[in-house]
Specification:
This protein is 37% helix and 17% strand. With 515 residues, it is of the alpha/beta class.
């Protein structure tokens, strides 16, 4: 099929891009591998979205972003977010999507999170992402210029080699239900597939965050950057046998402290100025150090000493209910927490308009590397980045539009055409090995020996995985395994090539100095 624009992914970044394009008159096809289009990292975002608090300024926000990012941030991207972000939250989320953010006596209620000097986070209870995603999907489904394709896994980008740069002409996708493989030809293609934190054994992300978009873009020849900067959220639920779901930073923003089993706090020893609200990389490594020093499986979050029971239930109803299902009562129990892979600061390199190094291909949201986050993301800037760059991508496409692209079957990339499924357990066993290796050797603290060991394991797996993909029946599980492995290699190689600890990339070896 042919369309003006194909958007792959429908979290906040992809949805905003698609809605803005559709409002501008473009025909947009939106693909998502999830059967339920609400399923995305956006849906699981608890804390909120950066706005502009009382006494706040763009300059103050920019300074907080750069401080958290350890100075590796692109100044242009930071300035764009700080200046445009609040206006676009108001126009796209409040006015267009109708999201009712929490209020206090009629005025917008702001929370404070780690690394922020002021309270500036808009929220909807502790389920901000759910409110945003539901509103945006409702808008997508209702728009006459948007065709939504849930249950379609993108396999490859369609690329035409040209003299200076390759050009993207759409994507080939697999219908997970019926097995149909279809080409979606488009004048412009927008990657909005999210990050890859689910390639780690411990993660706050849903299983679909396996790096599909990054892998496809890399195979298409797009430049990638900053892949070693993987943020580990310091406070994921860590009860043995339970899932490692996120305990929002907003909980610490409301006064909760990190403690040991005896109630003794420890963050002031690591971050005297910030304490429990230090940037995420600092807090995550502090917890890691405490766990290693005292041989602990986790530390604890003390919420009940900071807030009355009814206030906890009112401010964090979903977290309270989820913890209670696993036998932990936030109103009277310490909550077991430990770091988990959470967010990928790097990705497909793009400019201030979301353009990648492949013509006609844009990247937006967590799959993209705009340079905004530097070496470590400031809390609650990810949703805002999706709004800002989703809008900018759409506006750039509108201003540079030259017409739709006709289909050309000669340019179709190779896709699996076999009839035999992989051996029983092949996908699950290989996926588990990749995730265990990434956690053990490419996790919170890295070493040259560990990274080299991981890379050797991944290269050893690659021939069998590629053969199973090429000669097997088209299958979402095999697609994901192949992409996970490619991303694991890219991330491990990037971490190996960077010996300098910075932000959320931490190398255990001391850096050699001359003289």
């Amino acid at each position: 099929m042919c369309t003006d624009v194909v958007v792959i992914g429908c979290g906040i970044a992809g949805s905003v891009a698609a809605l803005r394009l559709a409002d501008l008159g473009f025909q947009v096809a939106v693909l998502t591998r999830a059967d339920d289009p609400h399923e995305s990292n956006t849906y699981y975002a608890q804390g909120g979205i950066v706005y502009r608090g009382y006494g706040d300024t763009p300059d103050l926000l920019a300074k907080d972003i750069v401080r958290a990012g350890d100075g590796l941030n692109d100044p242009r991207a930071v300035a764009l977010l700080a200046e445009l972000g609040p206006k676009l939250v108001k126009s796209m989320l409040v006015e267009r999507a109708g999201i009712a953010f929490d209020r206090d006596n009629g005025a917008l209620a702001f929370a404070r999170e780690g690394g922020h000097t002021v309270a500036r986070i808009l929220h909807v209870g502790d389920a901000t992402g759910q409110a945003i995603q539901r509103a945006l999907i409702t808008q997508l489904r209702a728009h006459p210029n948007i065709a939504l394709y849930p249950g379609w896994t993108a396999l490859e980008l369609i690329v035409k080699e040209e003299r200076k740069h390759p050009r993207c002409l759409g994507a080939v996708a697999l219908n997970r239900d019926g097995g149909e493989v279809r080409a979606f030809w488009a004048g412009r293609t927008v990657l909005a597939t999210g990050g890859f934190a689910a390639i780690f054994a411990r993660t706050t992300n849903p299983a679909g965050a396996r790096g599909d978009g990054l892998a496809m873009a890399a195979r298409a020849g797009a430049q990638v950057a900053h892949l070693e900067y993987v943020q580990f959220h310091p406070t994921a639920f860590a009860l043995p046998g339970a899932p490692s779901f996120l305990i929002s930073e907003a909980v610490r923003g409301a006064g909760a402290r990190l403690v040991h089993a005896d109630g003794s706090p420890f963050m002031r020893r690591y971050a005297p100025e910030w304490g429990d609200l230090a940037p995420r990389d600092v807090v995550a490594r502090a917890i890691f150090h405490e766990m290693r020093q005292h041989q602990l499986p986790h530390v604890y979050l003390d919420v009940c000493s900071a807030m009355p029971a009814e206030a906890i239930k009112a401010r964090f109803p979903n977290l309270y209910a989820t913890c209670l299902r696993h036998g932990v009562d936030m109103t009277c129990d310490l909550v077991p927490v430990a770091p988990a892979a959470h967010y990928t600061c790097g990705g497909v390199l793009c400019d201030e308009w979301g353009r990648t190094t492949v013509r006609g291909l844009y990247a937006v949201g967590e799959v993209a590397c705009t340079g905004l986050h530097g070496a470590n993301r400031l809390a609650s800037t990810s949703l805002l980045e999706g709004v800002v760059w989703g809008t900018r991508v759409a506006d750039h496409i509108s201003r540079t539009w030259t017409g739709a692209i006709p289909s050309d079957e000669a340019l179709m990339p190779p896709v699996p055409t076999g009839t035999q499924p992989p051996p029983e357990g092949f996908v699950d066993l290989h996926t588990a090995l990749i995730r265990r290796t990434m956690w053990a050797q490419v996790g919170l603290v890295r070493s040259r020996a560990g990274l080299e060991e991981a890379l050797a394991i991944f290269h050893q797996l690659r021939p069998d995985v590629e053969a199973a993909y090429r000669h097997g029946v088209p299958d979402d599980g095999l697609v994901g395994l192949r992409n996970m492995l490619q991303v694991a290699i890219l991330v491990t190689q990037a971490a190996l090539e960077n010996p300098n600890s910075r932000g959320c990339h931490f190398r255990a070896e001391p850096v050699a100095t001359s003289g």
